[in-house]
Amino acid sequence: DVKVTQSSRYLVKRTGEKVFLECVQDMDHENMFWYRQDPGLGLRLIYFSYDVKMKEKGDIPEGYSVSREKKERFSLILESASTNQTSMYLCASSDRWGAQNQPQHFGDGTRLSIL
Amino acid sequence: RKEVEQDPGPFNVPEGATVAFNCTYSNSASQSFFWYRQDCRKEPKLLMSVYSSGNEDGRFTAQLNRASQYISLLIRDSKLSDSATYLCVVTPNTGGFKTIFGAGTRLFVKA
């Protein structure tokens, strides 16, 4: 079974802090993703990565950055946390067979509150 | 128009009922299709892939209609445990790796 592990289930931080969310997958997947999910808005893609040291902006990258130094680890960074970044953050990974992407597998999510 | 659209529901059905969800997508070159299930305050989990010829997994049947650009999910003999949000997922054939999630359809199965 694929295992995607996010470092924290619940996190409370203060406005202006730099926040790190970590994600590790154990299946040697090529692709990794960060989403946020808010009521009524569904899943929104923040950033994704299709290889080590590679990253691509998703739909809502503003205020976020990412790092992928190793294949199994994908970090999301909130440079200066703001209250509108309070949300559920979900990490996912997927394999890639040629040009075809396989289903994504998600971590448990991190509920982040910015005070 | 959204790239992937679903009826948000909620669908309220009694146990044992048959319920069907549809999902439309706008990119005719879309390549891969999936249904995910998400329980309240949990992560989405893959329910099933959707193949061109249609496929079945127990009480669940998924169908793809490329001509009309929609996919469907049929749940037979609904159980209380089927109560969840069902997400339609489409991967466009653009050479990139972006997957598009629908906003989900909420299902409540009642005793």
End-to-end span of chain B in angstroms?
A: 37 Å
Beta-strand residue fraction of chain B: over 45%
Helix fraction bin of chain B = under 10%
Mean pLDDT level of chain B: 91
Described by strand count, sense and barrel closure, the largest sheet of chain A is: 7 strands, mixed
Sequence of secondary-structure elements of chain B: EEEEEEEEEEE
Structural class of chain B: mainly beta
Biggest sheet architecture of chain B: 6 strands, mixed
Q: Gyration radius of chain A, to the nearest Å?
A: 13 Å
Query: What structural category do the secondary elements of chain A indicate?
Result: mainly beta
Order of helices and strands of chain A: EEEEEEEEEEEEE
The fraction of residues in strands of chain A falls at over 45%
Which of globular, elongated, flat, extended, rod-shaped describes the shape of chain A? globular
In terms of quaternary structure, the protein is heterodimer
* Low-confidence spans of chain B: none
In DSSP terms, counting alpha (H) and pi (I) runs of 4 or more, how many helices of chain A?
A: 0
How many strand segments of chain A? 13
Shape of chain B: globular
Q: Roughly what percent helix of chain A?
A: under 10%
Compute the CA-based radius of gyration of chain B.
14 Å
